[in-house]
Amino acid sequence: MTSQSSSITTSPSNLEPYSGLDLIATAVLIVDRNLRLMHANAAAENLFAFSRKNAVGMPLSRVFQDDGPDNGVFAMLGQVVGNESGFSESSLTLHLPTGSTLHCSCLATPVDAEMVVVEFQPLDQHLKIAREEKLFEQQKLNRELIRNLAHEIKNPLGGIRGAAQLLERELPDEALLEYTQVIVKEVDRLRALMDRLLTPHHLPKIEPVNIHEVLEYVRSVVVAEFPETLSIKRDYDTSLPEILADREQLIQAILNIARNAAQSTAGSGTIRFQTRVARQVTIVRERHRLALEIRICDAGPGVPEHLKDTIFYPLVTGRDGGTGIGLSLAQNFINRHAGVIEFESAPGNTQFIVLLPVRPPGLSQTARSQA
Predict the structure, then answer these.
(1) How would you label 26-55 residue by residue, b for 16+ Cβ within 10 Å and e otherwise?
(2) How many domains in the chain?
(3) Angle of helix 177-198 relative to helix 123-170, nearest 10 degrees?
(4) 240-251, pLDDT tens digit by residue?
């Protein structure tokens, strides 16, 4: 147990109205010397699954239980109250009344002899933030790789196409034209692919966008590709606000995910589009009061285990005939809007989750516009 000083400055005179604590991404509890709850911020409500309105005044043991009398959080908080010195613990196991278990780090700081501020950080959240940071860094490398690759491939394609057309004029046997036509068609296909790789590098056109209009457009496109065998069910929260975004980029990102879902089920069965509001969301260490959550769910075989860490890398695909570009571009477009794409995958139940923060109008220019 080591003494620590908290990043939160709190005194009895400024505990009301507690509004500043809701801006903190970590779960914060304020308890008295008897370990009764005085206040909890919004992140603590989400983490411990209770209503602070009903929980204020109850013993902390009603919020969670720990693993032991000697090294548990209650024993350490008792020492904080008695000695008026803080503690930090990197790994604690807490048991909630709901039956679930949390693995957290904990930082406790006494404000005075009567009050202690306790901060909790779920260990899985540390891992999530680390994954997101790694993904954002990888996206930067991906964009540079794609740009260089596209230019290097596209430059000689014009020469190959021209040479094939010249050769076609000189061939003595018309039966051989089939082979030059293959060359021309494959060159055109590769040039189209390179154009797709280069198109993300324009600045986004930011305007108010209704996410359900985007989803309905994507739905019409995907159903048109598999009209007889595929259906898309919708589960929308129609109260969601508009967001400031590039509509075309959102369409392309959602379309790439939805096409992947359709192709994973061989174009048959049912895909589900779901929208919800997400509150107090942290994306790469940035806290957002409000975000849109879009889930695209399918009953396909799921993401192969060996691809789960690299599924958003360019040219990585688990499907025969796939280019490995769709999900990389989708993540790139969503990153530009300060959002992220995550996924949960198991055979028969795969969900790609798009999180897009809702920003005030004055912050619209913060949408990422990486070239």
Answers:
(1) bbbbbbebebebbbbbbbbbebbebebeeb
(2) 2
(3) 150
(4) 999 999 888 899
Residue whose token pair is 């280069």? 198
CA distances to 63, 87, 88, 114, 174 from 1, rounded to whole Å, are 23, 6, 6, 21, 85
Q: What is the pTM of this model?
A: 0.54
Peptide bond before 172: cis, by omega within 30 degrees of 0? no
Tokens (6 digits) for 27? 């779960």
Helix (H) or strand (E) holding 177: helix 177-198
Spatial neighbors of 54 by CB under 8 A, at least 6 apart, are none
Is the distance from CB of 356 to CB of 245 less than 8 angstroms? yes
Q: Of the candidates 94, 123, 152, which is a domain's last residue?
A: 123
pLDDT, greater one: 46 or 15 = 46
What CATH number has the domain bearing residue 59? 3.30.450.20
> Considering the domain boundaries, does residue 283 fall inside one?
yes
Residues 335, 242 share a domain: yes
In a domain, 195, yes or no: no
Give residue-wise pLDDT tens across range 251-286: 989 999 999 899 888 888 899 999 999 887 777 667
Q: Which domain holds residue 61?
A: 12-123
